[in-house]
Design goal:
The complex is a heterodimer. By secondary structure, chain A is α+β, with helices and mostly antiparallel strands. Helix content of chain A is 68%, strand content 9%. Chain A is built from eleven helices and four strands; from the N terminus they run αααβαββααβααααα. Chain A is elongated, with a radius of gyration of 25 Å. By secondary structure, chain B is an alpha+beta fold. Chain B is built from 13 helices and 13 strands. In chain B, helix 8 crosses helix 12 and helix 9 packs parallel to helix 12. The radius of gyration of chain B is 32 Å and the shape is elongated. The chains are: A alpha+beta, B alpha+beta. Chains A and B meet through helix 5, strand 4, helix 7, helix 9 and helix 10 of A and helix 4, strand 12, helix 8, helix 9 and helix 10 of B.
Amino acid sequence: MFIIKHRNAFFALTGALVLASLISVAAFGLHLGIDFTGGTLVEVSYDLPAPGTGGQAGGVRPDPVALTNTLSDAGFKDFSLRETGANGYTLRAQSIGDTQRGELAAVFSYQGGTAHVDQLTEIGPTIGTELRNKALLALGLVLLCILLFIAFAFRKVSKPISSWVYGLIALVTLVHDIIIPVGFFALLRYLTGAQVDTLFVTAVLTVLGFSIHDTIVVFDRTRENLRINHDKNRKEDFAETAGHSLNQTFVRSINTSLTVLFTLLVLYFIGPASTKVFALTLLVGITAGTYSSIFLATPLLVWVEKRRNRAKK
Amino acid sequence: MPAMAQKRVVAIVVLLIGAAVGWFVYHSEVTASWPFKLGLDLSGGTQLVYRADLNAIQSSDVAESMSALRDTIERRVNMFGVSEPIVQTETASALSGTSEQRLIVELPGVTDTQKAIALIGETPVLEFRLLKSANPPAAFSTTTVNQDFEPAAITGKDLASSELQFQGSASISEPVVVLHFTSQGAKIFADLTKNNVGRYFGIFLDGQPISIPVIRESIPDGTAVISGGFTATGAKELARNLNYGALPVPIELISTQTVSGTLGDKAVRDGIMAGLWGIGAVALFMLLWYRLPGLLATIALTLYIVVMLALFKFIPVTLTAAGIAAFILSVGMAVDANVLIFERIKEELRGGKSTGDAISDGFSRAWPSIRDSNISSMITAVILFWLGTSLIKGFALVFGLGVLVSMLTAITVSRTFLFALGVDAKYGFTRWLFSSGISRT
């Protein structure tokens, strides 16, 4: 089996991807969104100028530097301004007062350009703290439940590898499946200013639920084949059995992920704006999850078995 | 009836039920008799979250005060003609680090945050408190109010009505506002005044002490008078506002969310387009790769979609952008069970079984995998729903529902159809129809 034979190459690839993700997090960092920190998020868009009135060709939003000054003067604190789409701005700021809220559209408007507030979200500090704690608890609970699930799925003892090794490897792939989207998200933050919000946490948790199962299916097949070999008194190298099992589940793994990836691609490219980043995170996460259950889990299993064998000799 | 005919009747019945559900979804949407419920991020509107300040309330009164708070705000919002507002109370979970009572107000169609805040903000807050010390301090400040006063048993929720009256002699008559308590409130007030003769009784309006009379004797008739140096118009306005309802406790705005109607409309359009293309892509893939079974899977998927849409209307599920995302994602996952079954059937075919045997063995052997995959997704959905904010709840509910419904449609429906076809071939074109992908067997 190709994947088992060249497992060292895939280990290297996996290692490189994980390393790249970790470097990405270290270099670009993650930024908590206002969901978790409290604060204000404003999205505005500008009217296109009537033809012939001499609006700029590249869009009609005001110059960011000038707008930044206006915002400072209006009393906005600690804010960051980003261009969104062809014709709008996204403002992230600390909590705003009644006056600032009242004149929001006016502050963004400028000579010849009327701003519309498309979206305004203000989150108080207590709600931010609550959401942050809830997100952490949800992450903890999902991990705990998945651990229990793994323990349950691998409760039957089997040879030549004891069942806790399967569980441990499933966990390793899970860690991989978290690190990759997080690393990707750090890159996304650098490129587009994306922030870690409740939707990001939801995406990661959904990926975990999806990918753990994929890994378990592959392992289940390995154990089924080991049992059949044992029953039929057939001698076969473990690597061969594992590769054989991987072959049998390969198409299934790819196809179930493919249909999900199709829908996510559609969601990313033509879906609602507010779930684009969410779809992208899921896309990366589910790809990583499928990759790890095919190219990481079983090769790791074979590696463990080989080491064990060598230790015996 | 022979077994095969029976299977085919069942399959046709399933198809007819599916068509009926589909017709219901279509008809109820076109005639708007039972429309989808859209969240604020899709319909456009404003959500305001308030924290209730319960300092001046005895702890036994908290639940009742919160419901009075909700009723008052609801009346007020309705008065201003906002269609289908939602006003609800929420107890902040222990996770926020504080125990908070919150009031959540959702105003569909109101997209000016400032106006929405003003609409709620005009509601008067009426509070009653007893002064702790025997003599009133020289000056009150809002910061020391909670130290100087203690909660009184009566609260703004006990108010039944109020009216403008003039007190004093004709030449120096002063406008006052007379408060009439409910019968229950009158009883509380009678006890309160009887037990606290000689103490100062503070009447607070919007956090300011309006008048602090001394309780001279028990007042059994359930009325109290606010005389705070009003002008005639001021007193009249106050009496009117109080009649619309007074908040028993002050509230503080802690979070707002406004989405404009245009943004919401665009999100709905994009969501529908993404849904259609997503379904199309998955159906095409299933047809090309799995051939005849793929066609059956596509029929099962169609049934899944109409059942889900009908459930959205029936339950009803408030659809948000995240919920739509979950639905589209679930379309991709719904065929997962079919893929598992078909791959297994293919293996059984390779093992030399006839198509009939391969189908029944494929189903039974794929079942443990299908069950496990749905368990792990359900775990995630339940935890997200249990902990989530309204945004995440919308995602988790649709996702969880999708996992359950798809298990039903992918297994039972495609099983019914596969058996209803009644094919049992070892060679030839039929067998090709049941093979898949790039394999030859």
